[in-house]
Amino acid sequence: MMLALADFQLVFTLVGAALALPMSGTKKGLMSFPVLHKRSQALNLRTKDNVVALGNVSTLSYLIRLQIGTPPQLVEVVLDTGSFELWVDPTCATAATESQEEKCNASGRYVPSMSSTYVNKGVIQHIGYGKGGAEISYAVDDILVPGSNSEALRNVVFGVGLNTNELAWGVGGIGHGYGFNLHYNNLVDELHAQGITQSKAFSIGLGGQYSEAGGVIIFGGVDTMKFSGKLHKFDNMPPQIEGSKEGPWRYWIQMKSVGVTTPNSVMSTYEYSTMPALLDTGSTWSYLPQHIFDSLQDDFNATLSEDGSLEVPCSMIAQPGTVDFTFGELTIQVPYSEFISQLEPEYCALGILPRKGPYDRAVLGDSFLRSAYVVFDQTNQHLYMASYRDCGTNEQTLSGEVGAALNLTGQCHTGLRLFASIPMCWVIAPSAFVLWVFALLL
């Protein structure tokens, strides 16, 4: 989610001193959360004319589960690398669809009056996103450490939703916090300050959109059985807002090119596709400049729908092609089965929308990120990336040293992705499925 900063600065007096907490149920120096996959239908859109870009409606959302307060109250929030503040309790009645409203009501609420450790900061602020917004009241409370019955991250500042619009869940913003975009510690900052992690680095493997296992985020660590090959190191670029070096810090990476590999193995690369790209788990679709959007439309023979999305036959999900994103020497090949989503029973669309503006910039959302394993290192301002695979679990602690992630190699063979995300609709075209299997094993 692309966050609009408030025009004023928030100044907080944090309660208590940073604590060095012992770990219980997790490996020392890291803390991991399962990434939950929550599906909702794109039907019954709440618009006056019922015409809206379906790509803006999250049919698949990636969330983490937090336990906040004393006693702990269970809430779920969207995992969002595109923003940097944590808040809970959305206004469910304003969700974009009835299905999302149902999911919202079932995702848990934080009731401040029910927590003995709640502190009201007395500050209210509006946060705007690419879609929707939230008016929040800032609070301080404890967050229970996963795997522990008693240990908690103390005195964490976060927001409680007062009034939100078009948001089905609260937001777990894990972008740059104190000293970059905020005047208080966000969740990433507190994990490091209170001794849970050895660095302000974390890794994410979202998991395939058809995977039943979900994904994982590891604060302070990496899972070497969630990717293949080596991790490639990139600079976290400074703010890239309309060509300016000012603005909020986010996870910008230099993208070298975009292209496609067709089901019959014909490869092509698009001209003028070198540009900065934002890695944003809070964005369902990816946003690319109009000329790349048009090229993908041509290569997929897609139909531009009234709602702005690119419709393709659902049978294409089972075909063995890829959309290819290159960064330096690394190419992340996103299978059709991950780049195409089924939004309605008979409606499938590419996971892309055009990005408007005078400068070539890309936003790489979930339609790209579920095929990548990414380490976000705020301590050293680096990003590390490899192709996502899932062949088990082997969590390793990351130190704060520069390039520490380069010492870790993925343990998965490239072909093992087949078993992690077999498309549910391959039965539409069984013969195509066979070709898809062989292509992934190459």
Highlighted features:
single chain, 442 residues, Cathepsin D, subunit A, domain 1, 4-stranded antiparallel sheet, 7 helices, 11% helix, globular
First CA to last CA: what distance?
35 Å
Overall helicity: 10-25%
The CATH homologous superfamily of the largest domain is called Acid Proteases
List the uncertain runs.
Answer: 2-25, 43-56, 416-442
Portion in strands = 35-45%
The CATH topology of the largest domain comes to Cathepsin D, subunit A, domain 1
The main β sheet shows up as:
14 strands, mixed
Indicate the CATH class of the largest domain.
Answer: Mainly Beta
What is the number of strand segments?
29
Mean pLDDT: 85
Write down the overall geometry.
globular
**Alpha-carbon Rg, integer:** 21 Å
- H/I helix tally: 7
Q: What count of structural domains?
A: 2
CATH architecture of the largest domain: Beta Barrel
Strand order of the largest sheet: 5-6-7-4-8-3-2-1-10-9-26-27-12-29
Structural class estimated from helices and strands: mainly beta
Overview of the structural elements:
Strand 14 and strand 15 form a beta hairpin. The protein has 7 helices and 29 strands. 11% of the residues lie in helices and 37% in strands. The N terminus and C terminus are likely disordered. The chain has 2 domains: 167 residues, Cathepsin D, subunit A, domain 1, CATH 2.40.70; 237 residues, Acid Proteases (Cathepsin D, subunit A, domain 1), CATH 2.40.70.10. The protein has a 14-stranded mixed sheet. A 4-stranded antiparallel sheet has the order 15-14-20-21. With 442 residues, the protein is mainly beta. InterPro entries: Aspartic_peptidase_A1, Aspartic_peptidase_AS, PEPTIDASE_A1, Peptidase_aspartic_dom_sf. This is Aspartic peptidase domain-containing protein. Pfam families: Asp. One of its GO terms (molecular function) is aspartic-type endopeptidase activity. Belongs to the peptidase A1 family.
